[in-house]
Specification:
Helices cover 30% and strands 16% of the residues. The protein is α+β, with helices and mostly antiparallel strands and 179 residues long.
């Protein structure tokens, strides 16, 4: 019992690794599913909807709504998916398996990053930026489940966070995009 308690506390309460976290969302360069590099500076001037995704989650059908948003608002919005296995092993596949699943089942064409960790001590730097007010200037948050949504405005400022159950075509998200 002692060992289990020790492992629990060391995993969940170990400080995040220290490293350079950029001040701006536009300074991030992340690995993409296809092995290339996704440079967030290319999204300057557009709104960005960042979503952690998973293949085997009850929220997985949200890929359909995310794709529709991306197609409808392509001129002013970019959707970026970050596959993550951070919640109950709901994204166990390789980057290639994830890419194939997204394309075959949901016709995903929006940018997808390589699989990352979105919580805990191995949290990806971009998620450290998204969840920590000292970096994002907006608020502290925790990623509570797959398909949590972070909304960034055209100036690169984090402006809203929506729960995993908020659908991509919800009035709140549409209002953000259209303003």
């Amino acid at each position: 019992m002692y060992l289990a308690t020790l492992l629990f506390f060391s995993f969940f309460f170990t400080p995040r690794p220290k490293g350079h976290i950029p001040n701006s969302i536009y300074d991030f360069k992340v690995a993409a599913l296809d092995g290339s590099t996704m440079d967030f500076s290319t999204f300057r001037g557009k709104k960005i909807l960042i979503v952690n995704t998973a293949t085997y989650c009850g929220n997985t059908p949200q890929y359909t709504g995310l794709q529709k948003l991306y197609e409808k608002y392509k001129d002013k919005l970019v959707v970026v998916g970050f596959p993550s296995n951070s919640f109950f092993f709901q994204e166990p596949g390789s980057n290639k398996a994830i890419a194939d699943f997204c394309k075959q089942n949901y016709g995903v064409t929006f940018p997808m990053a390589a699989k990352v960790t979105v919580k805990g001590r191995k949290m990806a730097p971009i998620y450290q930026w998204l969840t920590d007010k000292k970096y994002n200037g907006y608020m502290d948050s925790k990623v509570t489940w797959n398909f949590q949504k972070y909304l960034v405005d055209e100036k690169g400022k984090l402006v809203e966070i929506f729960s995993p159950t908020t659908l991509p075509d919800s009035p709140e998200i549409i209002a953000f995009i259209e303003k």
